[in-house]
Amino acid sequence: MVKSKVLVVGGTGYIGKRIVKASLAAGHTTYVLQRPEIGLDIDKLQMLLSFKEQGARLVEASFSDHRSLVEAVKEVDVVICTMSGVHFRSHNILLQLKLVEAIKEAGNIKRFLPSEFGMDPALMGDAIEPGRVTFDEKMEVRKAIEEAHIPYTYISANCFAGYFVGNLSQLGTLVPPKDKVCLYGDGNVKVVYMDEDDVATYTIKSIDDPRTMNKTVYLRPPENIMTQRELIAKWEKLKGTQLEKISISEQDFLSSMKEMDYAGQVGVGHFYHIFYEGCLTNFEIAQNAEEASALYPEVRYTRMDEYLKRFLN
User: Fold this and answer.
1) Which interval of the chain is the signal sequence (predicted)?
2) What pLDDT does 141 receive?
3) pLDDT of residue 313
4) Is the pLDDT reported for residue 170 higher than 80?
5) Of 80, 110, 116, 149, which residue is most buried, by most CB within 10 angstroms?
């Protein structure tokens, strides 16, 4: 089977750079959108140039220039958008509507993967404010995709290990606590943790797979489904120590939002749905969806005890 040509939009971002790497590794002709808006952001430019050295092709286009976006889209078969949707970095979800318009006009795209890669927004209709804005905007993009009859795959990648594993799922830090750790409730709600490189690998596997056409693909490899307590226990075993555990009630956790800025309130809302409601695991995968590790058993995904070893002294 001929491998699709891929355009990555947001290729210098947290997930985007991994998607570019995985696409190249899988042998796809890979284009990366180069936006003139990067201005003097030397880090982004150098990353783009490094992609070029690895075999990617840079294509210039701007979201403020519809024609340039259309021409960029015409170069490829698949578009993957990885623009940020988190408020503590940048929040650009609705900018994708311009990309949808370009894909619609170009008329050649076999698959579009919009920027999702977290919780499934279709299941978050009852999400609390202000964090629900993320899900509402992603659903607005989905609506535009489906009304334009653009073939799609939605990737629900759950909890990125970089933000949820090294810190044992603590807010406000990215490294393991030294003495005590906060538990959300009893810490026994099932969560799904994913190494970001594995997210990219599974994503690229899905783009030419007819089984994932117009479906949501959940990344829920069985050994990475665990409770916060189980994650902590893995770290304690590796470290050979015990952490003091402090349980935070649901009410106290939600009350903490009052003292936070907007981005913090969004984060607390998302943590609440994950660790108190169990929104990542409290449902069965429906008929119009697939689970990535079942589709691609050949992928040796990273287990979280392996991931945690990088934090050992």
Assistant:
1) none
2) 97
3) 84
4) yes
5) 80
SS3 sequence of the chain: CCCCCEEEECCCCCCHHHHHHHHHHCCCCEEEEECHHHCCCHHHHHHHHHHHHCCCEEEECECCEHHHHHHHHCCCCEEEECCCEECCCEECHHHHHHHHHHHHHHCCCCEEECCCCCCCHHHCCCCCCCCHHHHHHHHHHHHHHHHCCCCEEEEECCEEHHHHCCCCCCCCCCCCCCCEEEEECCCCCEEEEECHHHHHHHHHHHCCCHHHCCEEEECCCHHHEEEHHHHHHHHHHHHCCCCEEEEECHHHHHHHHHHCCHHHHHHHHHHHHHHHHCCCCCCCCCCCEEEHHHHCCCCCCCCHHHHHHHHCC
pLDDT tens for residues 127-145?
999 999 999 999 999 999 9
| Active site members | 138
The string of pLDDT tens digits covering residues 260-273 is 999 999 999 999 99
Name all contacts of 207-211 with Cβ < 8 Å and 24+ positions apart: 207/4, 207/6, 207/28, 207/78, 207/80, 207/111, 207/113, 207/153, 208/1, 208/3, 208/4, 208/78, 208/111, 209/295, 211/290, 211/295
Cα–Cα distance list, 246 to 82, 102, 184 (Å): 36, 50, 9
